[in-house]
Amino acid sequence: MIIATWNVNSLKARLTHVIDWLGEAEPDIVLLQELKLETDRFPAAEIEAAGYHAVAHGQKTYNGVAILARAPIRDVTRGLPGFDDDQARWIEGTVALGDRDIRVASLYLPNGQSVTSEKFPYKLRFLDAFEAHARAMLADATRPAVIGGDFNIAPEAVDLYDPKGWAGDVLFHPEERRRYRAVLHQGWTDAFRALHTEAGRYSWWDYRAGMWQKDHGLRIDHLLLSPEAADRLEASDIDRSPRGREKASDHTPVWVRLADSMPAGAPYGPPEEIAEAAAG
DNA sequence: ATGGCGATGGATCATCGA
């Protein structure tokens, strides 16, 4: 199954691009950010006509997140648990995945604006709450989980076109990178980075100053896999083609492909059982 | 080079994004 994340920068302005991409990439689950519309303005009919169920958590003008899925989406939570927030930045739900369910979340992490802005401590507070909830999601060992979204964090120097120029600025600030790494250390896997070591692979390019044409971008959109999901990791990549279209979002989709079932013969279980299996 | 571009709401620009 294919799970994708995409900050569309207005679902209304990008609806044709989204519908087209659903047809081309045939993802099973899509996590959208920056809908920029109220929940009751969500284009449910168009999405349904494309073959997808959808749940959304929106608001006027800003933010807004959604989950699209070929299968029904159950047990939906709107808003990041444990974080009192009037901004629509988190939605999670459960979708059937092959031989068992998967828990997925769509995240639009605050940008922070600048280090001196009051929005930067808001970003760090959000990250603290995200860290706590990500840990709680891992504690639910009954099903694999995937968190996808616009994290507004470039994790490492290879993820920016000009790391020296961005050093200490929002999106590449040590305080946010430290918190992002703390989440990875809980046991989450950055799907794209697990399969690609090369520098210069980006998911966002500023509209201004010809950044797209110069390929000056940042990798700030991520798919985090719980250990059970990471065990099923088959492929992950960034699809640059939507960014090159007319009237494109400034972000482009990132996707991961997971095996529908656990690989046969994989050495899962306690060490003594693995040793027994190896001994025949 | 703190500009550049694009979307929104409600206006003929201000605000925000990253």
UniProtKB/TrEMBL annotation:
GO terms for molecular function: double-stranded DNA 3'-5' DNA exonuclease activity. Its EC number is 3.1.11.2. This is Exodeoxyribonuclease III. PROSITE patterns: AP_NUCLEASE_F1_1, AP_NUCLEASE_F1_4. SUPFAM superfamilies: DNase I-like. Signal peptide: none annotated. Pfam families: Exo_endo_phos. Residues 235-250 have a biased composition (Basic and acidic residues). Residues 4-251 form the Endonuclease/exonuclease/phosphatase domain. Keywords: Hydrolase, Magnesium, Metal-binding. CDD domains: ExoIII-like_AP-endo (cd09086). Residues 235-254, 261-280 are annotated as: Disordered. Belongs to the DNA repair enzymes AP/ExoA family. Its cofactor is Mg(2+). The keyword Hydrolase applies. It comes from the Bacteria.
